[in-house]
Amino acid sequence: MPVALIGANVNGKPNFEPIAYVGIVEYKPPLISVASYETHYTNIGIKENGVFSVNTPSENILKGTDYCGIVSGKNSDKSEVFDVFYGDLKTAPMISQSPLNLECKVIKTIKISDFVDIEKSHELFIGEVVNAYADDEYLTEGAPDISKFKTFTFSMGHYWKVGEKFAKAWEVGKNYK
Questions:
Q1: Do residues 19 and 6 lie in contact, with contact meaning Cβ atoms separated by under 8 Å?
Q2: Which site from 36, 141, 151, 174 is most exposed, i.e. has the minimal number of CB atoms within 10 Å?
Q3: Is 145's pLDDT higher than 80?
Q4: Are strands 31-37 and 100-111 parallel, antiparallel or unpaired?
Q5: What is the pLDDT of residue 166?
Q6: Of the CATH numbers 2.30.110.10, 3.40.50.11720, 3.40.50.2000, 1.10.10.10, which one belongs to the domain with range 4-175?
Q7: Distance CA 130, CA 105 (A)
């Protein structure tokens, strides 16, 4: 799963949580989902402000990314781990060192334990992407270019580098039969 650093202000301070449970919900309007365990500190800020950020980490901030997953904002101040900036929503902290930052407004929160017979579970936040931020060095023809991100994924307790493009979607399968 791709790793994203989810940002939220909690009690007026930036907090970040690495999450692999992030996905696209809709293209127009642009909606994204983030699933975070309901006891996580970041959830407090998301619910408090109704906004969050999705920051794509690169290898150059791997240690900070991992650190944010090791410690809880309940006990450790994560506000100085990264250089932080804010966009139009004012309370969704974003990371300057991230190749791509999405500023999102919560449109729906779903508590998974309402549907599954378990005491504690994840909360699924569905957010509308209000703004996207990326430096020119990470763009090709004005669009984000993942080959320039040096991002990574998470699987089985390890981080994996994202490789190179090897096939064109909706093309390679045309010769299946």
A1: yes
A2: 141
A3: yes
A4: unpaired
A5: 87
A6: 2.30.110.10
A7: 7
